[in-house]
């Protein structure tokens, strides 16, 4: 795919722009944060020319290591860490409120994701793979994005990007509870993310929303959640850095901003959110129901 790329699309400087990357301590999230932090390296004559990158991570020690590595490799000191467990709606709201008061934001990158496959129950009796996958992949994106939207909305060239997955192509939006199969729940959550981006794009025309598939990349997440897939295809997977290209292009390039908002991208190209010959599109009523399902509990935890 890279044969068709316009190389200078990513040769951009983003002085003073503020980025937030969830899951910025691992896999494609860390590689994305590093690549953004490196932008403007040639302008290091004055600290204010560098982009600011906020990492939202759950594990303090691992996140501090990642932050240190990003600072060392990029030479950019403006890397900030926020410890938030994205499966905890209360903690996300608290983070949103603090962040809004203290920081600007131009580009939100909803990258964190998980695929929990073990069948366990939470303390509330919810199936853990359903609860955890959905809390991290869909509810956290919902709360973080609805909460933070007013911040980039005030800025020039604001963008929201969600790292979805091509896996969502096998799922039609389903607002009934899904159980048992972590892979199916994951794909459903990734479908929900794409629908959310489309809905937000309608309500917030000043912001450029997009979702994307990073390509299959060799990350800790893939190694852990899909060991069989990883063992079979390891030689053909993208590196973490290669997996960042789609998100970097959406976050940085003016070519991406020139595309209509709300599209789903693969390798710098908008592609259909539905496989041909399948009936995966959802009705406005089904999409409205998704918002209702997310909105009411989200407010409960505010
Ligand atoms: N790699 C691929 O081929 C591929 C393909 C399609 C889509 N994706 C998507 O790409 C994104 C990045 O995944 P990856 O492959 O880079 O996997 P990864 O290395 O496992 O990264 C996932 C990130 O999400 C964070 N995260 C998970 N649960 C969290 C929580 N409760 N609170 C805060 N952070 C949490 C992880 O933190 P910890 O390190 O603390 O666990 C980690 O930083 C995900 O959304 C994934 O679904 C990846």
What is this entry, summarized?
The chain is of the alpha/beta class. It has helices at residues 27-38, 60-74, 89-102, 128-148, 150-153, 182-203, 220-225, 227-233, 240-252, 254-257, 284-300, and strands spanning 18-22, 52-57, 79-83, 107-110, 159-163, 208-213, 263-266, 269-271.
Your description of this structure?
With 302 residues, this protein is of the alpha/beta class. The protein has a single domain (11-300), classed as Rossmann fold (3-Layer(aba) Sandwich), CATH 3.40.50. The chain has helices at residues 27-38, 60-74, 89-102, 128-148, 150-153, 182-203, 220-225, 227-233, 240-252, 254-257, 284-300; strands spanning 18-22, 52-57, 79-83, 107-110, 159-163, 208-213, 263-266, 269-271. An eight-stranded mixed sheet has the order 3-2-1-4-5-6-7-8, with helices on both faces. The protein is globular and about 50 Å long. The termini are far apart. The structure holds NADP nicotinamide-adenine-dinucleotide phosphate (NAP). NADP nicotinamide-adenine-dinucleotide phosphate binds next to helix 1 and helix 7. It holds the Pfam family adh_short. This is Dehydrogenase/reductase 12. It comes from Colobus angolensis palliatus (Peters' Angolan colobus).
